[in-house]
Every structure is written in structure tokens, then in C-alpha cells.
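User: Just a sanity check before I run the rest of the batch. Below are the C-alpha cells for the first item. I only need the designed sequence back.
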């Protein structure tokens, strides 16, 4: 159980906008439109509006900050960080920009970098409980438990109604083996939010550590009642029952733990122990074997598709994209004709012949971005991902706002294990108007 961040929605939109001359009135209109769309939850629309405001007035920190918030709400945290960078470059005294950038870095598990941002936010606004809370969360992730404890305590001091901070402090006290202290924090959470299963689970685990197995059973039973899919609560309840010599009662809980989390080797050990006590030595040996073997050797096989996107997923996502085959006036070198013939051959399943035509189109017209991109799509479908990336590189070099090329290159990089580079490309694709990129970012970049 780890502390959870408060939702991005609690971060107030920065609506400060510098005085601008009449000639920049359109930029103000786009900015205000972006604010309106953000407030209604239309973050894709807000992003486009802020992008237009930035195009017309690239020196306004608030536009970058709010576009960063829109990207963050679309789970594009890499893209958000780039916008917060620019906002801070233009206005280094904006505590909210540091706080937001820290949150997006935390979402990417870059906790040490986030710590620096949260600390700067605290310097600029020392009375903001959210900054202390977020810094405490990041400190807990890098095992700076004493510092995290101090931050959560300060957050509670500034905002006594922050129940999330009480819960987080209870977890940190467990990390520091202050189980009696954690009981009061979990108790405060339960008193205020009696339907929160994790608070009962946390208090139950602390009671197990304090050998209060009977008390633990009551809390863990409540946790399971509220959240029947919580494997940890089943495990600790089984363990408490085992400590009370209730081996028959413990077995179903170990079974349920394993059903919900088959890699929990401790649950196999516990079930094996109970089976042994109940005379089922054959079953016990099988469980002990599992307890010994599970996650006891990390043998990784190097594969081409080393990212979280498999070959099949890549194909499915890439094939949604269509080549840009708009009719153009045919030049004397006939590059357009070769391009269109290549597209037609590709649609007939003649990939090799299609690539010959597309290569000829590129030879005749070396600035033909669409030909590079389309050839890259075909190469990717044939499994030649590295060469496909090179074609996307060429298309983007020729057309730096080629959204589909950024999208496909992002997919290819991600599938080959470059998650950061891939997600940055997907962010660019979304920024340039290819909105399907945000669905991929949501699923594969967080």
C-alpha cells in the first residue's frame, strides 16, 4: 500500500495573463478559450487553444503552464514537463509551476527530480500543504522515510482535514516500525472515512506486527468486506489465523491470496505450512516448491520487441494510421505517380513492389515527406522497425509538424524498448493535432 496522489483537478488553473497590446488580442481570446475548456474537462480542446495562444504570444508563461496542466490531465506527463520547463524559464517565481512539474515527474517515477521541484515550490510558498504532502510521497519512494514523516506532519499541521496525509503518515510509520504510532493515524482515517478499506487493512497489518492477531482479524475482515479483491488483506488475515493455530480457517484465505496474486510466494509458504500441520504433506511439498521457485530467479530473454508494446499491439495501433495520399499536380519527374502506384500496390498486398515505387518517388523527389512516411509504414508492417524509424525521421525532418509521423515513430520506439523517446514522440503527435495519441499515452506511458 503506497500513498496516492491527490487528483490533478485540485491544482488551480493559473489565469494570470500579462498585459498585451491590442495586436495580441487574438492570443488572449485563445488563452481564455483554453481556460474555459479546461474547466469543462475538454483537455484536448484546451491544449489546442493554448497552443494557438503560444503561437501568437510565445513569451506568456501562463499559456505554457496551463497547456502543461491540460497535457497532464491527458496523462501526457512527459509533454507536460516540457511546458512547465518553459513556464518556469519565463517566470521562475511561480510556485504552482514547480508543484505541477514535480507531480508530472512523480507520475513518471522520477522521484528525485520531483523532490527538487517540490522543495522549490515550498521555498516560494511555505504555507502550501499540498507541496509538503507531495514531497513526502516522493521521499517515501526513495526511502527517505524520516523526511517523509516530517513532510506529512507539516502538511497535517497546515491542513488538519487532510485525511490523505494521515493515511500516508500511517504507512510511513509502518516503514519506520512505529506500529503503535501508525494505529492512531489509521484510526483517524477510519473515523473520518469509515468506508476506506485501505485504512482498515493498514491498521490490521500494524496489529499483526504488534502480535494483536485477534484485533487484526477484525480490521482485516472489514477491509475484505469493503474490498474483496485486496490480496494483501487475505494474506495477513490468513497469517493471523495461522498464528492463532486456526489452520483450517487460514487455508481459504491463502487460496484467495494466491488466486488474486499468483506470485505471492509467502502465501504458498503459509498454505504449505498449514497443509503440513493438517497432515497433507504432499500438498505441503508442492506449495513449498512454489514458495522456493517463484521470483527466485530473474532470467530475461532479450527480444526485439523489448517494450510493453508487443508486435501485435504495435501492428494494431500503427494500422489505424493512413498514409497521406492527397491528389497533387504531377511533376515532370512523375514522383507523384510512383507514390500513388506504390500506395495501390501496398493495398493489394504487394509490399515489395510498393516499396520499390516509393523509393523511386523519393529518388525523384527527395523532399517527398509523405513517401518516406508511407514507406516507413510498410517497412514496419514487414517487421523492419529500425529502418521504419529512419523513414519517419526523414519525414519529420522534412515536415517538423508531421503529427502522424511522430505518432508512428513513437509507437516504434516504444515497441523497441525506448519508452521515454516513444512517449515524447506521442506527446508531439497529440500537440500537433493527432488526438488518438493520447489514448496510447494513457495506456502505455504511465
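Assistant: Here's the designed sequence for the first item:
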Amino acid at each position: 500500500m503506497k500513498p496516492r496522489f491527490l487528483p490533478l483537478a485540485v491544482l488551480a488553473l493559473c489565469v494570470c495573463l500579462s498585459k498585451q497590446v491590442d495586436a495580441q488580442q487574438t492570443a488572449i481570446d485563445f488563452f481564455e478559450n483554453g481556460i474555459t475548456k479546461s474547466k469543462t474537462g475538454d483537455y484536448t480542446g484546451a491544449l489546442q487553444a493554448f497552443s494557438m495562444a503560444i503561437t501568437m504570444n510565445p513569451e506568456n508563461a501562463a499559456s505554457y503552464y496551463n497547456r502543461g496542466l491540460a497535457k497532464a490531465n491527458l496523462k501526457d506527463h512527459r509533454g507536460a514537463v516540457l511546458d512547465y520547463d518553459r513556464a518556469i524559464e519565463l517566470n521562475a517565481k511561480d510556485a504552482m509551476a514547480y508543484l505541477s512539474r514535480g507531480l508530472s515527474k512523480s507520475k513518471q517515477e522520477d522521484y528525485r527530480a520531483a523532490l527538487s521541484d517540490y522543495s522549490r515550490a515550498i521555498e516560494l510558498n511555505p504555507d502550501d500543504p499540498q507541496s509538503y504532502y507531495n514531497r513526502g510521497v516522493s521521499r517515501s519512494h526513495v526511502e527517505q522515510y524520516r523526511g517523509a514523516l516530517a513532510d506529512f506532519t507539516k502538511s497535517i499541521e497546515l491542513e488538519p482535514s487532510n485525511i490523505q496525509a494521515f493515511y500516508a503518515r500511517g504507512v510511513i510509520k509502518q516503514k519506520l516500525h512505529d506500529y503503535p504510532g501508525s494505529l492512531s493515524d489509521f484510526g483517524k482515517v477510519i473515523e473520518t472515512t469509515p468506508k476506506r478499506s485501505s485504512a482498515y487493512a493498514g491498521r490490521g497489518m500494524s496489529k499483526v506486527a504488534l502480535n494483536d492477531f485477534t484485533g487484526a482479524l477484525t480490521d482485516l475482515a472489514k477491509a475484505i468486506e469493503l474490498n474483496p479483491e485486496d490480496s494483501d488483506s487475505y494474506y495477513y488475515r490468513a497469517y493471523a489465523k495461522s498464528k492463532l493455530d486456526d489452520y483450517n480457517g487460514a487455508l481459504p484465505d491463502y487460496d484467495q491470496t494466491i488466486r488474486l496474486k499468483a506470485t505471492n510466494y509467502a502465501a504458498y509458504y503459509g498454505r504449505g505450512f498449514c497443509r503440513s500441520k493438517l497432515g497433507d504433506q504432499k500438498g505441503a511439498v508442492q506449495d513449498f516448491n512454489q514458495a522456493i521457485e517463484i521470483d527466485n530467479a530473474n532470467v530475461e530473454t532479450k527480444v526485439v520487441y523489448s517494450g510493453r508494446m508487443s508486435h501485435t499491439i504495435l501492428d494494431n495501433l500503427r494500422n489505424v494510421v493512413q498514409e497521406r495520399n492527397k491528389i497533387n499536380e504531377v511533376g515532370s519527374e512523375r514522383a507523384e505517380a510512383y507514390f500513388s502506384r506504390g500506395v495501390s500496390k501496398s493495398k493489394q498486398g504487394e509490399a515489395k513492389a510498393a516499396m520499390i515505387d516509393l523509393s523511386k518517388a523519393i529518388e525523384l523527389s527527395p523532399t517527398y515527406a509523405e513517401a518516406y512516411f508511407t514507406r516507413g509504414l510498410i517497412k514496419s508492417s514487414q517487421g523492419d522497425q529500425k529502418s521504419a524509424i529512419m523513414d519517419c525521421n526523414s519525414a519529420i525532418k522534412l515536415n517538423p509538424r508531421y503529427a502522424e509521423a511522430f505518432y508512428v515513430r513513437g509507437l516504434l520506439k516504444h515497441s523497441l524498448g525506448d519508452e521515454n523517446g516513444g512517449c515524447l514522440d506521442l506527446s508531439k503527435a497529440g500537440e500537433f493535432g493527432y488526438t488518438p495519441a493520447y489514448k496510447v499515452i494513457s495506456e502505455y506511458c504511465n
